Amino acid sequence: MQFKRSSGILLHPTSLPGPFGIGDLGVNAFHWLDFLEKAGVDYWEILPLGPTGYGDSPYQSFSAFAANINLIDPEQLVKDGLININDTQNHPRFSEKKVLFKRISQWKNSLLNLAFLNFIQNQNSRLFFQFKDFIENQFYWLDDFSLFMAIKVMQNWTAWDQWPIQLKVHDSEEINQFRKNYSKEILFQKFQQFVFFNQWKKMKDYAQNKKIKIIGDIPIFIAYDSADVWSHPDLFDLTQDLKPRVVAGVPPDYFSRTGQLWGNPHYRWTNHQKIDFQWWINRFQSTLELVDVVRLDHFRGFAGYWEIPADATTAENGHWVRGPGNSLFNALEKSLGNLPVIAEDLGVITPDVIDLRDNFHFPGMKILQFGFGSDPSNPFLPHNYQTNCVAYTGTHDNPTSLDWYNSLSEREHSFCNEYMNSDGKHIAWDMIHTLWSSVADLTIAPIQDFLEIGRSGRMNFPGRLGNNWNWRLPNQLLTDQLAEKINKINQTFGRDSKMMKINSTFP
C-alpha cells in the first residue's frame, strides 16, 4: 500500500488514562480520538490486542484471534444494563502511573462474571441476538479459544502441556465430556470476547467518523501456551510429545549482545501451504475487522527466520531457515485483495527480505534513533529515505527519544545536534521536526516524545523479564495547547490531510 502524506501517534490502549487502573475502551478512548483530530493526526498506532499471558506482553498472547478483556470499559457495562454503577466503585486501589496487571485482571474477572450472570438471568433480547450472531460469525476461532481458556481456568492457569494427557492431546471423548460438564464456563469465555468486540466496534466507528485510521500489529510468532498451538499442533514445529523442536528469536543485534531468545515455536510451513494458508488468511481477516492497517511484526521472518535449538539459553547459536516468502502473501492477496501492511523490516536485512517487501509494495520502517551510530550513508537518516516508508522517532522497543539522547556518546551527540541543527534542549521535538519534514509518506512518534518524557515513559525493555508494558499516560498532559502544537507541525509539513470541524461529542 502507499500512504498519503500524513502522520500518526503510537499509544497502546492500556496506556490511556482512566479511573480503573488500565486504559480501556471507555470515555478516555473517545477523548483520545478527539485529541488526535484536533492535532490533525490521521493514524493511531497500537500494539497487539490479544489476551496477554507470560510477562503481560502483548507479543505473548493466549490467542492470535481473541482480545484482551482487561480493555473492557466497566462504565459501558452499566450502560448496557449488565451491572449497576455501584459495582464499578468497589475496586482495589489502582495506580495512575503504572498498570498493575494482576490486580486489574482479578477485579475485571469478577466484574465480568457478575455481568455474565446478569446477562443470563435477564436475557436482554437485543444483546442476546447480538451475542448469538457473534458466536456464529467468529466460530472459526472462538470455539477453540473458549474451550482452551475454560480448561486453563479449571487447571489453575497451568500451561496446556501440563494438563492431563487426554486434554493435552485433544482426546475427543474427554473434550466432549469437558464441554458438557463446563458449558457455562465456556460460554462465559465467549461472552467476554463478545463484550470486547462490541465495545471496540463503537470506538472504531467513532474513529472512522473522525477519519482516523487505526494501525494494529500482527506478531509473526504465536505463544506456545496458546489456543492456536494447542488446537492446531500440526501447524507448528513440535516434537512427538508436543514440545517445540526449535524456537524463535533473533541473533545478536542493537538490543542484545547475545540476541533475543523469544521462545515461540516455529511454524510447520509445509502444512500451512497444504491448506492454502487458510489459518493466516483467517488471522489477517480477523485483525482487519478491528484495525485499518497492519504493522507486520518481524517481517524478515517471512523471508528467512532464525531457528534456535529448543534447549538453548541464548539466541546466539541458531541458523537461518528460508520462510514461506511470496507464496504466503500471494495466498493472502488472492483471498483478501491488496493488503494494508507496514513491513517491520528491522534487524538483519538481506536482499530476499527487500525483494519480498517490494514485490508487494509494502512500505518498510525507518527508525531515526538508529541513524546516528555510523556515517551519513546510514539508511535510517532522513536524507536517505524513499517516499514509500513509515518513519518513526522510536518504537515501543526503543527508549524514549529524550532517554536515548541522554545515553549517546560525545561523537553521537555532536553528529545528532549538527544534523538536526539542535542544541539538545528539546531533542524529542527536534527529532519530530526532522522526521515530519522528510519525504517519508507517513511519520509516527510515540506520545512520550511529543510530551518530552524521559526514561520513566519507556514501554518495553527487550530481553528484560517483568516490569514492562505498564506505562500510563497522565490525563492532564493531553492539553489543547499540545494538540495545537502538533497540528501546526502537521500543517507546516503538509501532513494534515483533513481540515474539518471538530466534533467532540461521543456516545
Helix and strand topology:
Elements: E1 6-10, H1 27-38, E2 43-45, H2 74-79, H3 85-89, H4 101-122, H5 125-137, H6 139-154, H7 165-168, H8 172-181, H9 183-209, E3 213-218, H10 227-231, E4 246-250, E5 260-265, H11 269-274, H12 278-290, E6 293-296, H13 300-303, E7 304-309, E8 319-322, H14 326-336, E9 341-343, H15 351-359, E10 364-367, E11 389-392, H16 401-406, H17 410-420, H18 427-436, E12 442-446, H19 447-450, H20 480-492
Parallel strand pairs: 1-2, 1-12, 2-3, 3-6, 6-9, 10-11, 11-12
Antiparallel strand pairs: 4-5, 4-7, 7-8
Summarize the model shown.
The protein is an alpha/beta fold.
Annotated CATH architecture of the largest domain: Alpha-Beta Barrel
Percent range of helical residues = 40-55%
Biggest beta sheet summary = 8 strands, parallel
Shape, per Cα inertia axes: globular
Question: In angstroms, what is the radius of gyration?
Answer: 23 Å
User: What name does the CATH topology of the largest domain carry?
Assistant: TIM Barrel
Classify the secondary structure makeup into a structural class. Answer: alpha/beta
Strand content: 5-15%
Give a structural overview.
It is a single chain. Strand 1, helix 1 and strand 2 form a beta-alpha-beta unit. The chain has helices at residues 27-38, 74-79, 85-89, 101-122, 125-137, 139-154, 165-168, 172-181, 183-209, 227-231, 269-274, 278-290, 300-303, 326-336, 351-359, 401-406, 410-420, 427-436, 447-450, 480-492, and strands at 6-10, 43-45, 213-218, 246-250, 260-265, 293-296, 304-309, 319-322, 341-343, 364-367, 389-392, 442-446. It has an eight-stranded parallel beta sheet with strand order 9-6-3-2-1-12-11-10. It has 20 helices and twelve strands. It is globular, with a radius of gyration of 23 Å. It has three domains: 1-213 and 474-507, TIM Barrel; 232-292 and 302-339, no CATH class; 350-456, no CATH class. The longest helix has 27 residues, at 183-209. The chain is an alpha/beta fold and 507 residues long. Helix 6 (139-154) crosses helix 9 (183-209).
